[in-house]
Amino acid sequence: MARTKTDQHHWTSGRRRRRVIASVCVCGVAVGAFFVDPANLIDDPETAVEGTTRDTATVTVASLGEEFSADGELDYADRITLYYNDGTTSTGTSQAEDGGSRSTLPSDATAVGGLDGTTEGIVFTPLVTDTATCPEPPIDTTTTTSIIPPTTIDCGEPAPPRTTVPTPTTTTPQATTSTAVAPATTAPTPTTEAAPPVASSTPGQPTGPITRGLPTGRDGGGPSSGAVTTGGDVEVQPSLVVNEIAKVDDHYANGDVLWRVNDEPTVVLLGDLPAYRRLEEGDEGPDVAQLKSNLVELGYDPDGFVTIDDTYTGATSAMVERWQNDLGIDDTGEVALDRVVFVPHTGRISSVAVAIGDAVSGGTSMLTVSSRTRQVEFPLAATDRHSLSPGDIVTVRLPDRATFEAKVTGLVDRSDGTSTVSATPTWRVDYPVDVVPVSIDWSVGGGAESTVVPATAILRTDTRNYFVEVVANDGISTMLVEVTVGDTSGGLVTVTGDLTEGDTVISP
To answer: Does the global pTM surpass 0.70?
Structure first.
């Protein structure tokens, strides 16, 4: 059948379209074959791409291992809190847990005493606590030696005014009923009448007269040193007020005054043994030797008469008197318990807990000192305990992303398997804040050294082969080198292939 001109045109156009499509498909297959075939992945200078700028890395030889990290703190080392010691506490220092406890304050830190360290406070509990609401009879205040309160709950008739006896010779016969009040039989006196005795049959209650208040003095004798009696025989201790206190960031040295309470100075001396007693001639012990060593070092034995041993001799007393003269206090030749605090090092004032004018008592926290050396501290999980030993180096990152290295100086293992690690910076670290949160990184070597490249430098094809794009010597051309991938750690990977240490690879 003959084709018309229109049919001929459509048939010719269709053949041309089919030839174009076929040509495009052939070209696509050829290009695809070029990129899939690994033989075509090796570039030469003639096929290199020029004029591009990409990130590069250097091929190295190293030993990869496990990577570890932890969060911790940068602080000043050897923090020690110092307490006011009024003579009733056993020590004036307390050290942080990482440095070991230097001492323990007694559980009763509320008792107060005289400034000279000889007076002990007295804490007492009243013998009887009445819950009845009966009205109290009037009290005759002409004498104030003691007060005898009623102990019965039956109010009955109002009791006669209560008076006190001026002498301890009053006799009070015991009553036998729960409500009757019998008059006391006393020797005639011109001014006062004996207080009536009180009897009670209430179970658990005392049946004799009860004296409210404390005896004067610890042994019932005269007032204790430093005590004040007011209106009766209950002692009221004098106020202890801070007159002087060191400032934060002050540096202290052996023999410096850290604070004054009621104008009495407390001096810092160097030593590992805390002050725990008053020292005077005839005393013996290592604390005596520690005191003598400090005062000799400070120059208070100009003639060399003092032997540094455990005995507090007359020469020691003379040396102490010279030291007391310089402090502007009485030269007694004896060292009161509140006169010194011992710390193991010179350093700086980290914090201050009281201000001038504050009232203090035995056990009051005064200030905290530390060394001038920075220290990093961080926890270590039980599963990571094998990764660190003393002398190992860790990398520390500050909040501003600056880093420094620190050497592990201590590991404290705990009962739960965890540990606390202390590390000292290998160079001086200045930071405007005392306690700084930091992150710590370290690694454990993995054995023999291998060729190492960044993980981002690895290229993978559909055939699961691995390549590294290496920059040629001209710095412009690149070629793909096939490698075998090994261990990975911290963004690095070990490879085996035609690579040399120092080669430059593309690593975006």
So the answer is: no
